[in-house]
Write a structure and sequence with these properties.
alpha/beta; 2 domains; four-stranded antiparallel sheet; Alpha-Beta Plaits; Rossmann fold; 12 helices
Length: 333
């Protein structure tokens, strides 16, 4: 999880805010009135299945397409009234690299500096600094077509940073990368946030959102199905439990009496108690054991992961999903 400082406080100013964003293509509704508030200097992850509207959300907030309805502010600028000011404050990296493979890495950087109208000397200085920062100096004079996937993605982000944006939209930035390159990209994203940059991340890798994001929203059928920290999201999905293991059959039997809501396994002398994984729930279990003078040989806490959250909130045939979503919204109020 991201350890950014400014993003953790509830009073942090909003880098991105949106109310009621809507977008349709023909008779297909892609976004059906979504609300967002992303604190400055934080990582916000938008999750959702293919076709959920993640890329459309990025395209709207980065002024690439217009919304059909709703309002949004990015970097303090109204999206509809001041799109040029928004463009000057943001950087965008899509899931498909914008790198030109026919020219060198350095030439890609200098081209981007020209697009930002940087003076020649300043453009060369920015290009050299960013190439070094992203460990691309040795490959700077080689055609970008010779770069590995991870190198191309690093160059892509380096090009995005030429204009010194304070907000960066990363649309599935690690798609197709091997695990080592993905972890390298995570380090880059963490470093960006440490420097004060706000990162809006879309991803299909749930581990990525869990690892990086201060807050996560799940987009489904054009709406935000749930939003919260990773821990908040995990706590509302059924399946969490505390597992107690005993070696003494008498202690095991006494524990089943002290904790009547648990499910026991007489063969393994284990007792499983439903729990949301919170400190309060764990303390309740321990207090009941102490009051009965029982000591477990092993205690483990199991909580659902983001995979469980994702599948629960994006299921299309499960009647329990609305109830789970409503429970989450109530929990996060």
């Amino acid at each position: 999880m991201s350890t950014s400082n400014s993003g953790a406080g509830p009073q942090a100013p909003a880098a991105v805010s949106a109310v009621g964003l809507r977008k349709s293509y023909g008779d297909k509704t892609v976004l059906d009135g979504i609300d967002l508030r992303i604190p400055a200097g934080s990582v916000f992850a938008l999750l959702g299945p293919n076709g959920a509207g993640k890329t459309t959300t990025v395209q709207i907030l980065s002024t690439l397409v217009s919304a059909d309805g709703g309002q949004a502010q990015v970097a303090g600028h109204d999206l509809a009234a001041a799109p040029q000011a928004v463009r000057g404050a943001i950087g965008v990296t899509g899931q498909f690299s914008a790198v030109d493979g026919l020219i060198t890495g350095e030439e890609n950087m200098l081209l981007m500096a020209d697009l930002h109208h940087l003076p020649r000397r300043e453009g060369r200085r920015a290009a050299a600094e960013l190439l070094e920062r992203f460990d691309l100096t040795e490959a700077a004079n080689k055609p970008a077509s010779t770069y590995s996937g991870g190198m191309k993605r690093r160059l892509d982000i380096a090009m995005t940073l030429v204009g010194d944006p304070r907000i960066i939209f990363l649309d599935e930035p690690t798609t197709g990368l091997d695990p080592r390159s993905r972890h390298t990209m995570w380090q880059i994203i963490r470093a960006l946030v440490t420097s004060g940059v706000t990162v809006f991340l879309t991803t299909q890798y749930l581990e990525e959102a869990d690892e990086l994001a201060d807050r996560i929203a799940v987009l489904h059928n054009g709406r935000i199905a749930a939003e919260g920290t990773a821990d908040e999201l995990k706590r509302i999905v059924p399946g969490g439990h505390v597992r107690l293991r005993f070696t003494d059959p008498t202690a095991y039997r006494d524990a089943t009496t002290a904790l009547p809501h648990g499910t026991g396994d007489d063969d393994t002398l284990t007792l499983q108690i439903p729990s949301d994984g919170s400190q309060r729930d764990l303390r309740t279990v321990l207090d009941r054991l102490d009051d009965a003078g029982i000591e477990a040989d092993e205690l483990t806490v199991h909580t659902p992961d983001l995979d469980d959250v994702f599948f629960a909130l994006t299921a299309t045939t499960t009647a329990a999903v609305p109830a789970q979503t409503d429970a989450l919204k109530e929990t996060l109020r």
